[in-house]
Design brief:
about 270 residues; six-stranded antiparallel sheet; 6 helices; alpha+beta; about 20% strand; globular; two-stranded antiparallel sheet; single chain
């Protein structure tokens, strides 16, 4: 056996320590995987509840309370190209995984500067909030796109005119705290309430929603919110991803369908 202070013994001790630590970290990661996934799912549910304004403080809700509220929300799988619901969907379908599979993804075309991502899933989950009469009150849509350092993942809730925002949240990102990370600031998120998406028919040429370079004024106040101070690229990212997901390549076909269904329903009720 080499002397305690020899190079060989130092190397042997270091190697043994590295192996032991690696085993411990790997074991902890495996043991905690289910808990981590559960917490991620719970956080996404909290963000959906927050975007829809279904709780005054969704962040403080217990897991049981979150589940109770979330169980009242209907989840549907939508084909983004047609805007139609997918019949008998696979409940285990994961859009983020599908976006990486050639047979299950589609090209992302640049709208308003593009969102910095080449492919998106062909189908995704949307969330429907209904009133006590069973009528659709809100629809909550998943959104994502590149910021400065990361991909921003969030949800946007629309009122039942399907063109006015009720709320917006981001549940995952890696932006700089105090700068781009301010997309999580409650004061900034509150600005998105009652923001309009289009200034006419739900066509790409009428898309007005976005983030202003300064403080929006005049007519822009209906469609834009203040940019994040010191976070120009993150602000541009939010602007671009909203324009993309409300475009004809995103949720516009689905929202047109919902608006047409509501119009037909109102027509039947008035006849």
């Amino acid at each position: 056996m080499p002397p305690k202070d020899s190079i060989a013994n130092t190397f042997l001790v270091s190697l043994t320590l590295c192996i032991v630590c690696s085993v411990m970290v790997s074991s902890a990661a495996v043991a905690l995987k289910d808990t981590q996934e559960t917490n991620k799912k719970l956080d996404r549910q909290r963000n959906i509840i927050e975007a829809a304004g279904l709780s005054e403080n969704a962040r403080s809700l217990s897991g049981k309370d979150v589940q109770t509220i979330f169980d009242s929300i209907e989840r549907k799988l939508v084909d983004l190209s047609t805007g139609e619901y997918v019949e008998n969907p696979d409940e285990s379908f994961e859009p983020r995984k599908a976006a990486k599979i050639e047979a299950e993804n589609a090209d992302i075309k640049p709208i308003g500067g593009g969102i910095g991502i080449a492919k998106r899933e062909k189908m995704t989950w949307v969330y429907l909030v209904k009133n006590k009469s069973g009528q659709l009150d809100q629809v909550i849509l998943p959104i994502y796109g590149k910021g400065l350092w990361s991909t921003l993942y969030g949800y946007v809730a629309l009122k039942n005119d399907f063109e006015t925002l009720n709320g917006l949240t981001f549940y995952e990102h890696g932006e700089t705290p105090g700068l781009g990370g301010e997309i999580e600031n409650p004061k900034w998120k509150a600005q998105w309430h009652d923001i309009h998406v289009w200034d006419g028919d739900r066509e790409d040429s009428n898309l007005r929603i976005g983030v202003a370079k300064g403080t929006p004024s005049g007519e822009d106040e209906m469609y834009k919110v203040d940019g994040l101070s010191g976070a120009t690229i993150t602000s541009r990212g939010v602007d671009a991803l909203l324009k993309y997901w409300f475009s004809s390549d995103g949720f516009a076909p689905y929202l047109k369908k919902l608006a047409a269904e509501k119009g037909a329903s109102n027509g039947s009720a008035n006849s």
